Structures are given as C-alpha cells and as structure tokens.
Known about the structure:
Layout: E1 19-21, H1 33-36, E2 44-46, E3 57-58, E4 62-64, E5 71-72, E6 76-77, E7 83-85, E8 90-91, H2 96-101, E9 109-111, E10 118-120, E11 133-135, E12 140-143, E13 157-159, E14 164-167, E15 181-183, E16 188-192, H3 196-200, E17 206-208, E18 213-217, E19 230-232, E20 237-240, E21 262-264, E22 269-271, E23 275-279, E24 282-286, E25 295-297, E26 302-303
Parallel strand pairs: 1-2, 2-4, 3-6, 4-7, 5-8, 7-9, 9-11, 10-12, 11-13, 12-14, 13-15, 14-16, 15-17, 16-18, 17-19, 18-20, 19-25, 20-26
Antiparallel strand pairs: 21-22, 23-24
Amino acid sequence: MASRSAISSMAKLPKTLSSLDISHARISDVIPDWFWNLPTEFVYLNFSNNQLFSVSSVSGVIVDLSSNQFTGPLPHVIPLLQYLFLSKNLFWDPFLICDSLNHLAFVSIFDIESNLLSDEIPDCWENLRSLEVLNLGNNNLIGKIPRSMGSLHGIKSLSLHNNSLFGEVPSTLQYLSNMSVLDLSENQFTGNITAWIGNKLSSLVVLNLHSNNFQGYIPDQICAFNSLQVLDLGYNNILGAIPKCFSNLSAMATKTHQYMGVLQLEYVNQFVYSTTLVMKGREDEYSTTLGLVTTIDLSVNSLTGEIPKELGNLIGL
C-alpha cells in the first residue's frame, strides 16, 4: 500500500544528514514547502519512482525527482544546485526553464525528458556555461532551436528528440565543440546537413538525425569524425551516393569501445547520456550500453549508387 506518512515523518531528520534516498518507496504525497526549509543541508536527494504529485521548490546539490506525477510549472531551485533530474513527470511550462536555471551558476545536468512541455524553447541559454547535459526530449515543443543554445560551450550531450521542432539547425551550434551526443531525431528539421557538423563537432560519438526532413547530400566532412560510433540519418530526404570516405570513421573500425556518460559521484552512479535508435525495425532507448553501440543507419532516403566496398573496413558495425 502506498505511503502518505513518509514525508511528514522527515520533519525530525538529523541536521548532519547529507544524503536521502527514498526512491521506489511507493509514496503518494506532496513534498511540502517546510521540507526544503529544514536545517538539514542535503547534498543528494532521490525521490524518484514514486507517486509524488506536487513540489514548488527544490534545494540540494543533486536532486532526482524523476518518474513521479509532478505537474504544473517547474519548481523554484536554489543557486547551489548542480544536477536536476525531472524526467517522466507532467511538468508543462517551458518558459519557467529560464527562471529556474538562469541563476544557477554551477548547474551541470538538467534532464526534463518525457514531460508535457509545449510551445517554443525559450531563448535564454547565454549564461549556462557549466551545463554539460541538457535533455528536453520527448515533449511537445515546437518552433526553432534558439540561437542562444550556441552559448552552451560546456555541453557534452544535447537531446531534443521527439518533439515538433522545425527549421534549419542554427549555425551557432558549431561552437559546441565539446559535444559527444547530439540527438535531434523525430522532429521536422529541414535544410542540408551542413559541413560544419563534421568540421566543428569533431568530438561527437553519437549523431542522431533520424526521422526529419533533412535534404541534399551527405557532406564529406562528416567523415572527419574520429570518435563517431552512432550515425543515424535514416528517414530523411537525403540524395546522392554514400561517401566512400565513411571508411575513415575510425571508431567504427574497431570492436573495442568503452562506457560513456556515467555520472560517478559519492552518492550516485548514473548514466546520463542516452539516445533512441531504430535497429532491426525496433525502437529502443540506449543509455547504459550506449558507449558499446556502433551503427550507421541511412535507410529510407533517396540515396543512389552502390554501397562502397570501403565500408567493409568498419568491422565494429
């Protein structure tokens, strides 16, 4: 039976407590405001995988509220927060992202995948220089990618998958040279796959553009990726031949790979990179094993010519 008394019993928590994990506890309750005003200075709070349904503010350094039933606008957060996991809830107001994040000088991870965010992504990313993981995927967002996202110079994983975003990918994203994962799949993006993706984003391990309206030819510059393990261009309007230089994708020419995107701290060991791939007709999300996957998907386009024999060198596929 789900508990409603667990939260109220926390009023007498010791002041020296720094870590609290009540995940998977079947708690159905609100998180009252008094909880966040306790004298206890939490570093790690994990309320994930319950049936919690109301929260107005958040404090701590690492806070995981994922997989609950929280609804309404995003909670107010304190400036010391660094890692915030809000995925798989019912939050709906994207404009409060600016209010929630712009005073966070140290925020590194913001994951709000699989909520009810609608309307456009706010154009307010200039000051979030510490952000490394941003996941807005699987929401109801529309409009274009804001140009200010090109200011996220520390970003390592950017996921906007499964929304209704459109237009061309802004050229400002070429400045995100530390990025390992770029997932724009399942949207309505148009235009060519630009050469700067290969020239400027040379650290990419995952490039997922699946199910959009990209057109034109595959630029040869895409062959410059030394670390690329996942290239998904399937279900677009891409023309021309498959570049022979794909054989230069050296990370696909080996069977030796390693785990990536693991958040390893004193209190948590969590995979924070993920992407959804269609393999053998089945759509699956990869996170824990993402660093071990190698794949090229060019299916359902308008490509012509033969499959280059040079692809046989990519023994990791």
